[in-house]
Design brief:
With 415 residues, this protein is of the alpha/beta class. It has 15 helices and 15 strands. Helix 14 links the parallel strand 11 and strand 12.
């Protein structure tokens, strides 16, 4: 059997030969709704990764295809879409959701019970780690973004460094928002800061005047920490400014958005700072930055774009390593795609052709992606650096970085 699989894998590398079958991977992404900007970028990134793998010869003798469903940024829609893909279409893996309030119910209701690989490009909630610790993921969940448990440390240090000692918080009243506040508040307080108020809000309201008034009620602050998405976040920020709030902001990773900046107005965001999962640049980063916009029409710096390419690449390489779309083999195979002892492999057709040849020969590979070389821990989490940014003249501009070592050093000081 192994000789047959190796022969098949080698066969697809021969030039001019078409793949003999299709392998369909499920995507459940937020193409519309408050997180639609992220999902659209993510979908194009996965499509690009699949194109590159197919141009390299395909995986396990087959052409990769994406069956993309729109969660509409609604958990019940996300679960229904994932159920269709897993139970009816019988996909071997699901990529998605983009945000944690979509990924968590997909995991607990669909992929974990069915033991189907799920990888999220941008769901950062610590709850996903806790589910792993509690044995509720069946080992099938992975993500290509760092946990908010680490982003909270980075944001707290960045806030203190910018002179934001007293902060009001307005945050989404969901798993992501509540956890982000928790993971920020502990380090921020330990570093000498004070959270003067933390006000939750429910999504899709026409007005957030009541929440802004409540946040302002605790007195003067140095900045507002807005844990939101571009749509609701813009409404809240405009209300904050119109009610006389200080025009200094700390923003979460999802607020790295042209839509948010354009809706609020760049004149009000000159002192807006944020944190995002960063990259350790590789040849994959260079390839992606040089080619993504021509493929997608989207800026390669768009939130979730880089790490969605890696999610697609890793799923494709895992299928190749498993010898086909075998659900039971894929969680182990995706770890083998980033084998520390493997031959380094980067993004793009030529590199993927090299990877597929090595896989056919039974040799280990280490995919070093757009976001950099990663290792998955026992819960499917990664470590990594954080990008520190500021909105400068209406553009998100990198102003610094916290390396993985910097984050760990800060965490050590807080103990």
């Amino acid at each position: 059997m192994r000789k047959t699989l190796l022969a098949t894998a080698a066969f697809v590398l021969l030039p001019g030969l078409a793949a003999a079958c299709d392998i369909t991977v499920g995507l459940v992404l937020e193409l519309t709704g408050p997180a639609g900007e992220y999902g659209q970028a993510g979908a194009k990134s996965v499509e690009m990764a699949f194109r590159d793998l197919n141009d390299a010869g395909g995986v396990a003798g087959c052409t990769l295809k994406a069956d993309t469903r729109d969660s509409q940024t609604q958990a019940n829609v996300a679960v229904d879409a994932a159920t269709q893909l897993v139970q009816v279409t019988k996909v071997p893996a699901v990529i998605g959701g983009i945000i944690s309030p979509m990924s968590i119910p997909i995991l607990t209701s669909v992929t974990a019970p069915a033991k189907v690989l799920q990888i999220s490009p941008a769901s950062s909630s610590p709850t996903l780690t806790e589910l792993g610790r509690e044995g509720k993921t069946n080992g099938v969940f992975f993500r290509t973004i760092t946990s908010d448990a680490l982003q909270g440390v980075a944001a707290a240090k960045f806030a203190i460094d910018k002179g934001f000692k007293k902060i009001a918080i307005i945050h989404q009243n969901n798993d992501f928002g509540v956890n982000m506040v928790k993971e920020f508040t502990g380090p921020f307080t330990a570093l000498g800061g004070t959270v003067v108020s933390a006000t939750p809000y429910n999504a899709k309201q026409s007005s957030y005047a009541a929440e802004v008034t409540a946040a302002m009620g605790a007195g003067d602050v140095d900045a507002l920490y807005l844990v939101s998405d571009p749509v609701d976040g813009a409404t809240i920020a405009r209300t904050w400014v119109s009610q006389g709030g200080v025009q200094k902001f700390l923003l979460n990773d999802g607020m790295n958005s042209d839509d948010f900046i354009n809706a609020v107005g760049k004149d009000y965001l000159g002192n807006a700072f944020g944190t995002s999962s960063g990259t350790d640049p590789t040849k994959s980063t260079e390839y992606f930055n040089a080619n993504y916009k021509a493929f997608s029409g989207i800026d390669p710096a768009a939130p979730a774009a880089d790490r969605s390419y890696d999610a697609g690449a890793l799923v494709g390489l895992a299928i190749a390593i498993a010898g086909g779309p075998d659900r039971a083999k894929l969680p182990d195979a995706i770890r083998k795609a980033v084998d520390p002892a493997g031959e380094p492999i980067y993004a793009g057709k030529d590199e993927f052709a090299k990877a597929l040849k090595l896989i056919a020969e039974g040799k280990p590979i280490r995919y070093e992606g757009v976001i950099g070389p990663v290792n998955f821990d026992e819960f499917g989490d990664i470590a990594g650096p954080f990008r520190l940014w500021q909105i400068v003249d209406g553009k998100v501009t990198t102003v610094g970085e916290m390396t993985t070592a910097d984050v760990e050093a800060t965490k050590a000081k807080l103990k």
